[in-house]
Amino acid sequence: MAMAARARRRVVLHFDLNRTVLMSDAAGGRTMENTVDYLLSECTIEPPAGGVAAVAVDGADVALPLITYKQFVDDAHPAAKKQRTTLQSAFTGGDGPGSRVRGSFHEVMSKLHFPEGEQRAAAKSAALALPDSGLQEAWSEGKYYLLPSFLRLLSFLAAHSSSDSGDTSSPPKYDFKLVFRTFGDDIPEVAKELELLVAGKHPFCPGQRLPDHFKLDVSAGSARVGTFYRDGYGADGTALAVGTLTKLPFSSANQADPRALEAFYGGAVPIVRGFRAIQDQLAAMLSESTTLALRDYWEWWSAHAENGEYGKLLLVDGTSRSDGDSDSGLTVFFDDHIEAHHAHIVDVRDARSGAAVPFATSNGRFLQRVEPFAAITDEQYFVQLVAKILQDAEDESSKL
Description:
By secondary structure, the chain is of the alpha/beta class. It is built from 15 helices and 13 strands. It has an eight-stranded mixed beta sheet with strand order 8-7-6-9-5-1-11-13, with helices on one face.
């Protein structure tokens, strides 16, 4: 008797957009050049009292007494975010403190451009048919929107999931799911780029097609998108509006009115409240789709001093990567704003109890910091990162 096929392991990968898989930070008011200066400010080190040379690094392992320029500015202006952003976003320009690593700025910017020749010409040509958007602007200047390292990851996921491999003798072990996360309004641009990848019309890989299930439908009422609203710390203070990317404006009146969300949408979209109900809703959406996009509520995070427990919600079952079951799913959130010692921007909650999952538990298990410098300069960065996560999970399961 033939053995039943082993169930594929669901792997849900949540990806922040800005400074993680693309380098246009429209939500933060930064150009691509500003963004590159900012990322260099967080990976350039020198002694706190000043030094004879600055050293560019591509990792976060900075030994004391060395500090990054970003940390120096954060410490100098703890209550003035706008001033911090201005300084960090002009790090290498003119006679700025990072002028000595201006060469690194040019190196990174060159990696953000399509190669000269056919690819760059194809990008500029494709931009002519696009509506005004961050994607259109980037391609019209010969620049990437989604990073090549992320485009490589999409191909990797397609080759290692579902029935895309075509090898029935060795069925895929994984059922990959993608969830794009952003505070901003850039999801439609990502959806357009995915559409071109599925059609085989992307200038990075012309003629190569992603499977249709990678498409992201962002039309009104689509079950592939949703928008969070938060007005309280507990489960009853969190809601998900399904089928829309339009968010309820933040105001003291709305925060105080328990019916504000329903009144805003006027019954046009389903509203799901509570951690467990939201997790069930997302699971149902993922069962029908490979790709989702969720808009998070920046105002709630900002109003609480950008504390991680008020950031982008990530719901998990328990605190184990596999909960003792080698076939259970994996959930990982990738974000450049995850810090070395705190989540900063991701609110990891146990969906059953509503309790915040400590960073000591979630870091490296549910949370994965992305190094923007490496994501830009190494086209295999995301493939290697995800492959390592999968291998670590397999190793962990084998010990149970």
